[in-house]
């Protein structure tokens, strides 16, 4: 295994790293390795969680509903010449 030294860690970053490692009950070394694997794509888990809990509320349109909507808003693409005089 290789050893890497990282210089220039600012106090705020140092505190954040240590806090997050502690929150996950990991050593700073293990937390940094885990985070680097996620950021580099070696670990297949995504860095940011994908949320889909509101998808069913937002819903979606099928082709017929989409066509109907586009047809109904077509009037807004027309310029009323009287308004611009």
Structure, described:
- With 85 residues, the chain is an all-alpha fold.
- Helix content is 47%, strand content 0%.
- It is built from four helices and no strands.
- It has helices at residues 11-23, 28-40, 55-58, 63-72.
- The longest helix is centred in the N-terminal third of the chain and has 13 residues, at 11-23.
- The model has no long low-confidence stretch (mean pLDDT 87).
The chain-level structural class is mainly alpha
| Count of extended strands | 0
Main pleated-sheet profile? none
Strand content: under 5%
**What is the number of helical segments per DSSP (H or I, 4+ residues)?**
4
Fraction in helix? 40-55%
Question: What is the straight-line distance between the termini?
Answer: 77 Å
Radius of gyration: 26 Å
- Broad shape: elongated
What is this entry, summarized?
The protein has 85 residues and is mostly helical. Helices cover 47% and strands 0% of the residues. The relative contact order is 0.05.
Features:
85 residues, 4 helices, 0% strand
List strands and helices in order, with pairings.
Layout: H1 11-23, H2 28-40, H3 55-58, H4 63-72
